[in-house]
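User: Could you go from structure to sequence for me? I need the amino acid at each position, not a summary. Structure tokens:
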């Protein structure tokens, strides 16, 4: 099996009788809702995410977009009444285009979309007009020096039951995360100065975390530096924590969450008026949560 928007050549069971799931090329969206070509992960990025449970992609958006988005977050935080109701969120205004940014779609096509087909009865859950994953949730952080807490959570994702959603399952040649974060850093982050902390590889851990994990200085924790305009992907199955922000410039970040089509963790919906104004393909990120036949043609 091969297709041009994910790299995987893998064997997965379809629903019935152990038959192989063989999605065609058309089962993977090649463009986003604005017509931009989807950006595939490189082999190295795909390997790293699977090995680590998190992946930083630096320099994804340009300085003009970053500035516009930063201003929007500051306005949301300090003068929300100046923004119309339906745009008053971290998916409003210029932030809307981040939800299906070509780099996000490339990542989700590889690790979150499961091109499930119900035998011969229903087509794959995505096509050129419809995404194969859901957007779950969105919030922003406008964090000043001294703010933020060390709150370690999650891990052991390979050994959790599917309904948990904090899962990470892997097979020769393919891996799948359910609840998944894409964090857009709109200001620079310097290592150990307040970016998200990770216990690298703990999404696959077989043991309970040791007590030493509760120490922020433990060498078990890793983190990153990045320029403004970078995106950080992580599976919620990896042990991670927020940290205390230590830089003069605030942390301005957007936290977008995604999940498989049949999974819903957060009690969150986009504003209906905002949704109605989105391009049709983008709207498929917010379709009802079920599997059988849940595809827009
Ligand atoms: O604040 C952070 O850096 C991480 C927050 C967190 O736990 C998450 O995004 O799931
Ligand atoms: Fe978290």
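Assistant: Here is the amino acid at each position, in order:
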């Amino acid at each position: 099996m091969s297709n041009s928007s994910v790299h995987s050549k893998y064997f997965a069971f379809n629903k019935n009788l152990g038959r192989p799931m063989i999605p065609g090329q058309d089962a993977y969206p090649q463009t986003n809702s604005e017509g931009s070509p989807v950006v595939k992960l490189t082999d190295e990025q795909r390997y790293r995410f699977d090995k680590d449970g998190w992946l930083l992609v630096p320099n994804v958006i340009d300085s003009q977009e970053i500035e516009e988005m930063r201003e929007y977050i500051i306005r949301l935080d300090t003068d929300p009444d100046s923004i119309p109701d339906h745009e008053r969120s971290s998916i409003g205004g210029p932030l809307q285009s981040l939800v299906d940014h070509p780099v996000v779609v490339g990542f989700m096509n590889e690790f979150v979309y499961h091109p499930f087909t119900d035998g011969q009865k229903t087509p794959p859950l995505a096509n050129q007009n419809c995404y194969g994953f859901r957007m779950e949730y969105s919030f922003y952080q406008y964090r000043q020096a001294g703010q933020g807490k060390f709150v370690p959570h999650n891990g052991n994702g390979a050994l959790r039951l599917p309904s948990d959603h904090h899962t990470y399952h892997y097979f020769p040649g393919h891996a799948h995360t359910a609840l998944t974060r894409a964090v857009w850093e709109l200001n620079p982050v310097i290592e150990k100065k307040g970016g998200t902390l990770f216990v690298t590889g703990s999404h696959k851990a077989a043991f309970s975390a040791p007590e030493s994990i509760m120490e922020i200085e433990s060498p078990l924790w890793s983190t990153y530096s990045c320029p403004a305009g970078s995106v950080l992907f992580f599976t919620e199955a990896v042990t991670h924590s927020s940290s205390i922000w230590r830089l003069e410039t605030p942390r301005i970040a957007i936290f977008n969450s995604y999940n498989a089509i049949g999974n819903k963790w957060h009690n969150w919906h986009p504003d209906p008026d905002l949704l109605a104004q989105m391009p049709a393909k983008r709207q498929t990120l917010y379709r009802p949560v079920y599997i059988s036949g849940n595809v827009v043609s």
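One structural detail worth keeping in mind: The mean pLDDT is 94.
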